[in-house]
Design a protein that fits this description.
Elements (H helix, E strand, L loop, with lengths): L12 E8 L2 E6 L3 E5 L7 E4 L6 E6 L5 E5 L3 E5 L7 E2 L8 E7 L2 E6 L4 E4 L7 E3 L7 E7 L3 E6 L3 E5 L7 E2 L9 E6 L5 E5 L3 E5 L7 E2 L8 E6 L5 E5 L2 E5 L7 E3 L9 E5 L2 E6 L2 E6 L4 E6 L5 H4 L2 H7 L3
Antiparallel strand pairs: 1-2, 2-3, 3-4, 5-6, 6-7, 7-8, 9-10, 10-11, 11-12, 13-14, 14-15, 15-16, 17-18, 18-19, 19-20, 21-22, 22-23, 23-24, 25-26, 26-27, 27-28
Amino acid sequence: MAASGADARSCWLRDAATPANNLTYALCQQGDVLVTHDGGVKWTAQATGAKGLLRAIAFLDANRGFAVGDGGALLVTEDGAKTWKTRPVGTNENLMAIQMIGEAGWISGYDGVILHSEDGGRTWAKQNSGVTQAIESLFFLGADHGWAVGWAGTILLTTDGGKTWRQIKTDAASWSLSSVYFRNARDGWIAGFGGQLLRSADGGATWKAVATPVKGWHTSVRFDQANHGWVTADNGLLLSEDGGDNWRPVPVDATIFVNKLVNAGGSLLVLGPFGLMRQQGTSLEWKRLENPFVRETDTGQASDAGNKKPF
Protein backbone atom coordinates (compact mmCIF):
# COMPACT_ATOMS: atom_id res chain seq x y z
CA MET A 1 0.00 0.00 0.00
CA ALA A 2 1.43 3.30 -1.04
CA ALA A 3 0.34 6.53 0.58
CA SER A 4 0.92 10.22 0.24
CA GLY A 5 1.79 12.50 3.14
CA ALA A 6 -1.80 13.70 3.29
CA ASP A 7 -3.50 10.35 3.77
CA ALA A 8 -0.96 8.19 5.61
CA ARG A 9 -1.76 7.27 9.17
CA SER A 10 0.28 8.44 12.11
CA CYS A 11 4.01 7.65 12.00
CA TRP A 12 6.54 8.00 14.78
CA LEU A 13 9.91 6.99 13.42
CA ARG A 14 11.63 4.23 15.37
CA ASP A 15 14.51 2.90 13.26
CA ALA A 16 15.98 3.01 9.75
CA ALA A 17 18.09 0.97 7.35
CA THR A 18 20.05 2.06 4.26
CA PRO A 19 21.00 -1.04 2.24
CA ALA A 20 21.99 0.92 -0.90
CA ASN A 21 22.92 4.46 -1.94
CA ASN A 22 19.94 6.84 -1.70
CA LEU A 23 17.69 3.93 -0.61
CA THR A 24 16.41 4.23 2.95
CA TYR A 25 13.72 2.32 4.79
CA ALA A 26 12.40 4.16 7.86
CA LEU A 27 10.28 2.25 10.36
CA CYS A 28 7.13 3.74 11.88
CA GLN A 29 6.40 2.20 15.24
CA GLN A 30 2.68 2.18 14.33
CA GLY A 31 3.30 -0.36 11.57
CA ASP A 32 4.27 1.35 8.32
CA VAL A 33 7.62 1.49 6.55
CA LEU A 34 8.60 4.67 4.73
CA VAL A 35 10.71 4.23 1.61
CA THR A 36 12.83 6.72 -0.32
CA HIS A 37 14.87 5.99 -3.44
CA ASP A 38 16.28 9.50 -3.83
CA GLY A 39 17.92 10.24 -0.50
CA GLY A 40 14.78 11.57 1.17
CA VAL A 41 13.27 13.95 -1.40
CA LYS A 42 10.21 11.75 -1.97
CA TRP A 43 8.78 9.06 0.30
CA THR A 44 6.13 6.38 -0.01
CA ALA A 45 4.56 4.40 2.84
CA GLN A 46 4.08 0.65 2.84
CA ALA A 47 1.92 -1.13 5.43
CA THR A 48 3.40 -4.16 7.19
CA GLY A 49 0.16 -5.36 8.77
CA ALA A 50 1.73 -5.42 12.23
CA LYS A 51 -0.74 -5.84 15.09
CA GLY A 52 1.43 -4.13 17.72
CA LEU A 53 4.23 -1.61 17.92
CA LEU A 54 7.33 -2.19 15.79
CA ARG A 55 10.75 -1.43 17.25
CA ALA A 56 13.57 -2.26 14.80
CA ILE A 57 14.29 -2.88 11.12
CA ALA A 58 17.14 -4.48 9.14
CA PHE A 59 17.78 -5.30 5.48
CA LEU A 60 20.05 -7.93 3.93
CA ASP A 61 20.00 -6.15 0.57
CA ALA A 62 17.78 -3.72 -1.33
CA ASN A 63 14.82 -6.12 -1.32
CA ARG A 64 15.07 -8.51 1.65
CA GLY A 65 14.19 -6.95 4.98
CA PHE A 66 12.88 -7.62 8.47
CA ALA A 67 10.93 -5.68 11.10
CA VAL A 68 10.50 -6.80 14.71
CA GLY A 69 8.26 -5.63 17.51
CA ASP A 70 5.85 -6.40 20.29
CA GLY A 71 4.40 -9.83 20.98
CA GLY A 72 7.22 -11.68 19.23
CA ALA A 73 6.42 -10.03 15.91
CA LEU A 74 8.77 -10.69 12.99
CA LEU A 75 7.67 -9.40 9.60
CA VAL A 76 9.57 -10.18 6.41
CA THR A 77 9.66 -8.61 2.95
CA GLU A 78 11.35 -9.92 -0.17
CA ASP A 79 10.24 -7.17 -2.56
CA GLY A 80 11.56 -3.93 -1.06
CA ALA A 81 8.79 -3.41 1.53
CA LYS A 82 5.91 -3.66 -0.97
CA THR A 83 4.51 -6.72 0.80
CA TRP A 84 5.17 -8.22 4.23
CA LYS A 85 4.58 -11.63 5.78
CA THR A 86 4.73 -12.72 9.40
CA ARG A 87 7.25 -15.37 10.39
CA PRO A 88 7.14 -17.37 13.66
CA VAL A 89 10.13 -17.07 15.97
CA GLY A 90 9.01 -19.17 18.95
CA THR A 91 8.47 -16.38 21.47
CA ASN A 92 5.75 -13.91 22.43
CA GLU A 93 8.17 -11.52 24.13
CA ASN A 94 8.56 -7.98 22.81
CA LEU A 95 11.47 -7.85 20.36
CA MET A 96 13.66 -4.75 20.47
CA ALA A 97 16.66 -5.05 18.14
CA ILE A 98 17.77 -6.92 15.03
CA GLN A 99 21.05 -7.15 13.12
CA MET A 100 21.82 -9.06 9.92
CA ILE A 101 25.35 -9.85 8.70
CA GLY A 102 25.28 -11.73 5.44
CA GLU A 103 22.87 -14.63 5.91
CA ALA A 104 23.33 -14.60 9.69
CA GLY A 105 21.07 -12.64 12.00
CA TRP A 106 20.31 -11.93 15.64
CA ILE A 107 17.24 -10.55 17.41
CA SER A 108 17.01 -9.48 21.06
CA GLY A 109 14.09 -8.66 23.31
CA TYR A 110 12.42 -8.84 26.68
CA ASP A 111 13.17 -11.52 29.28
CA GLY A 112 16.71 -12.02 27.98
CA VAL A 113 15.54 -13.31 24.60
CA ILE A 114 18.18 -13.68 21.89
CA LEU A 115 17.26 -15.37 18.61
CA HIS A 116 19.64 -16.44 15.85
CA SER A 117 19.25 -17.30 12.17
CA GLU A 118 21.82 -18.98 9.93
CA ASP A 119 19.72 -19.07 6.76
CA GLY A 120 18.97 -15.47 5.89
CA GLY A 121 16.15 -15.11 8.40
CA ARG A 122 14.01 -18.00 7.17
CA THR A 123 14.25 -19.85 10.50
CA TRP A 124 15.19 -18.69 14.00
CA ALA A 125 16.35 -20.50 17.13
CA LYS A 126 16.73 -19.28 20.70
CA GLN A 127 20.19 -18.74 22.16
CA ASN A 128 20.79 -18.94 25.90
CA SER A 129 21.63 -15.43 27.07
CA GLY A 130 21.79 -16.46 30.74
CA VAL A 131 19.81 -13.37 31.82
CA THR A 132 16.17 -12.41 32.29
CA GLN A 133 16.51 -8.66 31.78
CA ALA A 134 15.31 -7.05 28.55
CA ILE A 135 18.10 -6.75 25.97
CA GLU A 136 17.69 -3.41 24.19
CA SER A 137 20.65 -3.41 21.81
CA LEU A 138 23.05 -5.85 20.18
CA PHE A 139 26.00 -5.40 17.87
CA PHE A 140 28.06 -7.93 15.90
CA LEU A 141 31.36 -7.55 14.08
CA GLY A 142 31.21 -10.48 11.72
CA ALA A 143 29.66 -13.85 12.47
CA ASP A 144 31.46 -14.52 15.77
CA HIS A 145 32.12 -11.44 17.88
CA GLY A 146 29.00 -9.86 19.36
CA TRP A 147 27.82 -7.83 22.32
CA ALA A 148 24.40 -7.13 23.85
CA VAL A 149 23.21 -4.69 26.51
CA GLY A 150 19.98 -4.03 28.37
CA TRP A 151 18.16 -3.25 31.55
CA ALA A 152 19.76 -3.05 34.99
CA GLY A 153 23.28 -2.71 33.59
CA THR A 154 23.19 -5.97 31.62
CA ILE A 155 26.25 -6.50 29.41
CA LEU A 156 26.85 -9.70 27.41
CA LEU A 157 29.55 -10.78 25.00
CA THR A 158 30.08 -13.74 22.71
CA THR A 159 33.02 -14.92 20.61
CA ASP A 160 31.24 -17.84 18.95
CA GLY A 161 28.25 -16.23 17.29
CA GLY A 162 26.07 -16.55 20.35
CA LYS A 163 26.42 -20.25 21.04
CA THR A 164 27.63 -19.08 24.43
CA TRP A 165 27.11 -15.68 26.04
CA ARG A 166 29.22 -14.34 28.91
CA GLN A 167 27.74 -11.83 31.33
CA ILE A 168 30.05 -8.95 32.26
CA LYS A 169 29.72 -7.30 35.66
CA THR A 170 31.06 -3.76 36.06
CA ASP A 171 30.52 -0.99 38.60
CA ALA A 172 30.45 1.48 35.69
CA ALA A 173 27.03 0.16 34.60
CA SER A 174 24.61 1.11 37.34
CA TRP A 175 21.50 1.82 35.23
CA SER A 176 19.79 0.41 32.18
CA LEU A 177 21.77 0.44 28.95
CA SER A 178 20.33 1.48 25.59
CA SER A 179 22.98 1.06 22.90
CA VAL A 180 26.22 -0.84 22.22
CA TYR A 181 28.70 -0.23 19.40
CA PHE A 182 32.21 -1.51 18.62
CA ARG A 183 34.58 0.26 16.27
CA ASN A 184 36.72 -2.88 16.06
CA ALA A 185 37.13 -6.08 18.06
CA ARG A 186 38.61 -4.20 21.04
CA ASP A 187 37.28 -0.61 21.11
CA GLY A 188 33.68 -0.61 22.33
CA TRP A 189 31.11 1.87 23.56
CA ILE A 190 27.85 1.65 25.53
CA ALA A 191 25.29 4.42 26.10
CA GLY A 192 22.63 4.35 28.78
CA PHE A 193 20.32 5.95 31.28
CA GLY A 194 21.56 8.30 33.98
CA GLY A 195 24.32 9.86 31.87
CA GLN A 196 26.12 6.58 31.33
CA LEU A 197 28.73 6.41 28.60
CA LEU A 198 31.06 3.43 28.93
CA ARG A 199 34.19 2.47 27.04
CA SER A 200 36.06 -0.82 26.66
CA ALA A 201 39.58 -1.27 25.29
CA ASP A 202 39.68 -5.06 25.59
CA GLY A 203 36.76 -6.33 23.55
CA GLY A 204 34.15 -5.80 26.25
CA ALA A 205 35.76 -7.73 29.08
CA THR A 206 36.10 -4.57 31.19
CA TRP A 207 34.47 -1.14 31.03
CA LYS A 208 35.20 2.36 32.30
CA ALA A 209 32.89 5.36 32.59
CA VAL A 210 33.50 8.35 30.28
CA ALA A 211 32.34 11.81 31.41
CA THR A 212 30.02 13.87 29.19
CA PRO A 213 28.25 17.23 29.66
CA VAL A 214 24.83 15.50 29.78
CA LYS A 215 23.66 13.60 32.85
CA GLY A 216 20.33 12.48 31.44
CA TRP A 217 19.65 9.71 28.93
CA HIS A 218 22.31 8.67 26.41
CA THR A 219 20.18 6.69 23.96
CA SER A 220 22.64 5.64 21.22
CA VAL A 221 26.30 5.85 20.25
CA ARG A 222 28.15 5.55 16.91
CA PHE A 223 31.42 6.62 15.28
CA ASP A 224 31.62 7.80 11.68
CA GLN A 225 34.30 7.23 9.04
CA ALA A 226 36.03 10.48 9.99
CA ASN A 227 36.64 9.14 13.51
CA HIS A 228 34.03 11.47 15.00
CA GLY A 229 32.06 10.05 17.88
CA TRP A 230 28.34 10.81 18.23
CA VAL A 231 25.88 10.23 21.06
CA THR A 232 22.18 11.04 21.16
CA ALA A 233 21.50 12.51 24.58
CA ASP A 234 18.48 14.33 26.01
CA ASN A 235 17.08 15.22 22.57
CA GLY A 236 20.43 16.47 21.26
CA LEU A 237 23.80 15.32 20.02
CA LEU A 238 27.18 15.00 21.69
CA LEU A 239 30.32 15.08 19.53
CA SER A 240 33.85 13.85 20.13
CA GLU A 241 36.65 14.79 17.74
CA ASP A 242 39.44 13.03 19.66
CA GLY A 243 38.34 9.40 19.55
CA GLY A 244 36.00 9.63 22.51
CA ASP A 245 38.15 11.24 25.20
CA ASN A 246 36.15 14.49 25.27
CA TRP A 247 32.57 15.29 24.31
CA ARG A 248 30.68 18.52 23.62
CA PRO A 249 27.04 19.35 22.80
CA VAL A 250 26.03 20.01 19.19
CA PRO A 251 22.78 21.96 18.67
CA VAL A 252 20.20 20.24 16.44
CA ASP A 253 16.58 20.77 15.49
CA ALA A 254 14.77 20.16 18.76
CA THR A 255 11.47 19.29 17.06
CA ILE A 256 12.85 15.95 15.85
CA PHE A 257 13.60 14.66 19.38
CA VAL A 258 16.61 12.70 18.09
CA ASN A 259 17.29 9.46 19.94
CA LYS A 260 18.95 7.00 17.57
CA LEU A 261 22.02 6.89 15.32
CA VAL A 262 22.05 4.54 12.33
CA ASN A 263 24.85 3.60 9.95
CA ALA A 264 23.95 4.65 6.40
CA GLY A 265 26.72 3.53 4.07
CA GLY A 266 29.55 6.01 4.37
CA SER A 267 27.64 8.37 6.67
CA LEU A 268 25.24 8.35 9.62
CA LEU A 269 21.55 9.01 10.02
CA VAL A 270 20.13 10.39 13.25
CA LEU A 271 16.42 10.06 13.85
CA GLY A 272 13.65 10.78 16.27
CA PRO A 273 9.90 10.27 16.14
CA PHE A 274 9.34 13.37 14.01
CA GLY A 275 12.18 13.31 11.48
CA LEU A 276 15.63 12.28 10.32
CA MET A 277 18.93 14.04 9.65
CA ARG A 278 21.78 12.83 7.44
CA GLN A 279 25.45 13.75 7.71
CA GLN A 280 26.73 16.18 5.10
CA GLY A 281 30.08 17.59 3.96
CA THR A 282 32.81 17.12 6.55
CA SER A 283 30.44 14.92 8.60
CA LEU A 284 29.99 17.73 11.14
CA GLU A 285 26.95 19.08 9.28
CA TRP A 286 23.47 17.54 9.36
CA LYS A 287 20.66 17.95 6.81
CA ARG A 288 17.10 17.38 7.95
CA LEU A 289 14.93 14.93 6.01
CA GLU A 290 11.32 15.71 6.83
CA ASN A 291 9.00 12.93 7.93
CA PRO A 292 6.05 13.76 5.66
CA PHE A 293 3.80 11.26 7.42
CA VAL A 294 3.60 12.95 10.82
CA ARG A 295 0.17 14.45 11.41
CA GLU A 296 -0.21 17.95 12.82
CA THR A 297 -1.72 16.44 15.98
CA ASP A 298 1.46 14.39 16.45
CA THR A 299 3.81 17.34 16.23
CA GLY A 300 1.60 19.15 18.70
CA GLN A 301 2.49 16.42 21.19
CA ALA A 302 6.21 16.99 20.72
CA SER A 303 6.93 18.37 24.17
CA ASP A 304 5.31 15.38 25.83
CA ALA A 305 7.01 12.93 23.48
CA GLY A 306 10.43 14.26 24.38
CA ASN A 307 9.81 13.77 28.07
CA LYS A 308 8.07 10.40 27.84
CA LYS A 309 10.38 8.90 25.20
CA PRO A 310 7.69 7.11 23.09
CA PHE A 311 10.27 4.55 22.06
